Amino acid sequence: MQIFKNPNVDFVRWKWHAIALSWVIILTGLGVIWKNGMPKGVEFSGGTIVIVKFAQPQDLDRIRRVLPGGGTNAIVQTYGEPATNQVMIRVHTTGSEQGQGLSDTANMVVTSLNQAGLGPIDGNGICKPGQTNCVSGKRIVGPTVGEELQQRGIMATVFALGGILLYIAFRFRFSFAVGAVVATIHDLLITLAFLALFRYELSLNVIAALLTLTGYSMNDTIVIFDRIRENMRSMRKDNLGSIVNAAVNQMLDRTMITGGLTLLSVIALYFFGGEVLRGFGFTMIIGIITGTYSSVFIAAAIVVIWQGRGPAKVAPATPVAPEGKQTGKANKRRAS
Amino acid sequence: MYKNLRWKVLTTAAVFVIFFAVGVYPMLAQKYHWPSPGWLQAKALKLGLDLKGGVQLTLKVNTDDALRITTTSTSEQLRSSLSTNGMTPTITVTAPTTFRVESVPPDKDSQFRAAADEVSTTNYQRNTLPGGTYEFVMRPNIERNLREEAVEQTLQTIDRRVNALGVTEPSIARQSQAEQILVQLPGVSDVAHAKEIMGRTAVLEFKLVEAGPAPKDDLLKQYNNNLPGDLEILPGSASASDQSSTSYFVVKKVAPVTGQDLRVAKPGLDENNQPAVHFELKSEGAKNFGKLSGDNIGRSLAIVLDNRIISAPRLEGRITDQGRISGGFTSETANDLALTLRSGALPASLTYLEEEVVGATLGADSVRAGIIASAVGLLLILSFMVFYYKLSGVNAIVALVANLVILLGLMAYIGATMTLPGIAGFVLTMGVGVDSNVLIFERIKEELHAQRGVRAAINAGFNRVFLTLLDTHVASLISALFLFQFGTGPIRGFATTLSIGLFVNLFTSIFVSKTLFELELSKRKVPALSI
User: Which residues from B are below 8 Å from A129, CB to CB?
Assistant: First the structure.
């Protein structure tokens, strides 16, 4: 079975259209971020999250109104399965980092719920199995952690990109490395744009997803580059554009199948993985779609643009070609 | 033709069985109460706090405290050395690493230098300022060592305290950021108590009382508002009913005996049957305590805990190796104090940066969601593979299932922790894992189209794709490594799952999958490939 019967699409011809489309999405996203800011999860912005398990379903607006300060800037939403009557309350402040007062705000939230007659909620312990009117989870992040984490997140991404750039430059050639890294940055920006458009918070899990995307997006790109490298040997007479086109077309089935299958698994994660992993799932869904798109339209296009459209006479910088030898061995084995 | 085939099949089967036994069986045994030996159960895959429930705290060690203590004690040494030489300059600690000596008389300058050299030259750099003023700044390498020591000592002390609390399988580890410690207490729900036990500095000192108890202003008046440098004013314990009734004492700055001299501390009762803490001293401490109490019979000795006087009993006679601290304890607070004293003082105060409490039910919900997501993902992938690649799809499925089983087994074996993001990594491994098979199968198809024989096509498929797989896996591994560096707890769990998944995937997609093909090929004469 095949998805595409001998596809022969001139992908390289569409490169400028693709690049323009990507810019439109990225600039839209950046515009939204510039205007509204990127919503940040509690890990980055600091703050207090209390997840309360009530005995009965609750009116979220009522909970918000009784919070300290009338619930300005507070986020109140249902958490997990509706049947569990869990409500997540997030406020943007914490107690003092000095001493043992970090959880003061969390205690205040519980106290104000109790004063409003929504309890009585046991604020000291944590829900035991079967217990209701209790706190099932808390997360309090002081302001210093967030800032540090933000920087480390950016550093990790930059270093990961740098590491991969070096690896590809070593294994293929520099223009390939540039193509792969540009494609990956493109994927990250597009994903960020969608996160901003859909108002997803930048949480630790989302950052983890973004970093995973750098790996995934490279993955897809490398597979196509690998084929370009192979074609450069077998199609010496052709220009780089046709070589790249041939490679993308040859790998089209694989690209679609892999993209589709990985997409299936993260869609499962998005719908069934629970509250905490939803942001992760969303990031991966967008990332895999753009990753697949960029490895077809962007990465190879960059290589072509970078190298010019001349004939690809030069063999790859590192001629890693034990394939031929291995096939030879296989042939011998077959003959014996 | 495939002479090693039998060994390959055996290896595959053995690997599968072993990792199934380590990674999957203990979990099933736990859930369904199947028989399982204890040593195997002990190896069962560990769940992170976010799945198991418990408390996670991020602490910062305020190492400035430890530096300030060292600087203060050096400056006090210098003060006493100078006073024996008849000099009484003003000495003030101006920063954790710096103290200043002012108005050294010019005629005694050389004497001062000699004394200063003796006391401080190894640890402090001396700068001469105009007007007979000297500034002593801690040398950078000493500062670094002291900070390092303070964090390390804090780590050990917290470890002892947490163990004394009876938490099972706690984890206390330094973070990659300087001076931060991550404490994980599974199964704990009373955060406040845990924080109190961990965070108490528990510096115990015995200091001679010079004056008091009295209100602070009255005491200062006794000294004409000019307290001598070797004395200090400390608050006594306030009565619970009235905070403003706190009385103050003037005590000697130097403590001849401290908590470091303690050998034993345990809760008990005092002569009025009130809860108290009994202690015994080590031999050196006992000698000092004997001298201190023997020389000062009739005076009061302040028992100072974290710069607050718990009680100031009169010394009735010479005390050597044991004593008792009483003063308004409940049996619980006496217990806690004994515990913190036993585990040693913290060299510095702690700051809580982050606190996370996960209820057991919340964790269980996450586990359930994770299992459902994995099952759905797996089912979707399996259906597609069989639909699209037919019999070869079954091959991929076997490889994928082996991949997941080995991944779980390997994680259990090396003692890695499965976290909620780790489950995401697990689900993702399925997608990425099956990709290797897709690559290989697509290549085989291509080779078949190029009119190659089935055997040649399969061989070429595996051989040509091997390098591609190597490149893609290395690239993914690079980003996983940086993810590990970046993250804490749960995210590390994700990076670990992902990295191990990548390694295992190379094995299953290349070795297991190929063995299965060879098995198929060895049976019949050049079959038509179902792909």
Answer: 360-361, 364
Segment A28-73, tens digit of pLDDT = 999 998 998 888 888 888 888 888 888 888 888 888 888 877 777 7
Instruction: Take residue B483 and report the two structure tokens written for it.
Output: 């993810």
Name, of A144-158, B286-300, B480-494, the range with top average pLDDT: B286-300
Chain A residue with the nearest C-alpha to that of B358: A137
Closest Cα partner for B361 from A110, A130, A48?
A130
Q: Can you name the residues that pair with B266 across neighbouring β-strands? A: B278
3-state secondary structure of A276: coil
B492 near B484, Cβ under 8 Å? yes
Of residues B336, B257, B357, the one with CA closest to residue B54:
B357
Report the share of chain B in percent with pLDDT over 70.
Answer: 96
- Residues β-bridged to residue B127: B135
In the predicted model, what is the mean pLDDT of residues B152-178?
A: 83
Q: What is d(CA A184, CA A82) in angstroms, rounded to the nearest whole number?
A: 38
Kindly identify which residue of chain B lies nearest to residue A275, measuring between CA atoms: B366
CA B99, B105, B111, B116: dihedral to nearest 10 degrees? 0
Tokens of B65: 């405290």
Residue A85's nearest CA partner among A118, A43, A40 is A118
Q: Is B39 helix (H, G, I), strand (E, B) or coil?
A: helix
Q: Which residues of A touch B61 (CB under 8 A)?
A: none
Within 24-83 of B, beta carbons closer than 8 Å to A belong to: 50, 53, 58, 60
Rounded CA-CA distance B178/B176 in Å is: 6
Amino acid at B147: R
Please indicate whether, in this complex, the C-beta atoms of A97 and B352 are within 8 angstroms of each other: yes
Residue found by looking up tokens 């792909």 in the block: B531
B196 to chain A: closest CA residue: A100
The contacts of residue A47 (CB under 8 Å, 6+ apart) are A90, A91, A92, A93, A94, A140, A141
3-state secondary structure B341-384: HHCCCCCCCEEEEEEEEECHHHHHHHHHHHHHHHHHHHHHHHHH
A47-141 CATH = 3.30.70
What is the residue whose two structure tokens read 């920087």?
A: A151
Which of A88, A109, A272 is most worth mutating to test chain B (most B CB atoms within 10 A of its CB)?
Answer: A272
Q: Which fold has domain B5-52+359-523?
A: Multidrug efflux transporter AcrB transmembrane fold (1.20.1640)
Q: How far is residue B408's CA from residue B28's CA, in Å, rounded to a whole number?
A: 13
CA distances from B97 to B62, B72, B120, B146, B253 (A): 13, 9, 12, 11, 19
What confidence score (pLDDT) does residue B111 get? 84
The CATH T-level fold of domain A12-40+145-314 is Multidrug efflux transporter AcrB transmembrane fold (1.20.1640)
Domain segments of chain B: what residues? 5-52+359-523
- What is the pLDDT at residue A114? 81
What is the C-alpha to C-alpha distance for residues B16 and B22, in angstroms, rounded to an integer? 10
Residue A292 in contact with partner chain B when CB distance is under 8 A? no
ipTM: 0.80
- B14: part of which helix (H) or strand (E)? helix B5-19
Give the closest residue to A253 by CA, choosing from B378, B453, B441.
B441
Please give the Cα distance from A304 to A294 (Å, whole number).
Answer: 14
**Among the ranges given (A161-175, B96-110, B437-451, B514-528), the one the predictor scored with the smallest mean pLDDT:** B514-528
Q: Look at the pTM and tell me if it is higher than 0.80.
A: no
A:132-171 residues touching chain B, CB 8 A cutoff? 134-142, 144-145, 148, 152-153, 155-157, 159-160, 163-164, 167-168, 171
Q: Within an 8 Å CB–CB cutoff, is residue A318 touching chain B?
A: no
Among A176, A264, A329, most B C-beta atoms within 10 A, so best to mutate, is A264
User: Rg (Cα) of chain B, in Å, rounded?
Assistant: 34
Q: Of B208, B256, B261, B198, nearest to B232 (Cα)?
A: B208
Nearest-CB residue to A142 (from B191, B353, B364): B353
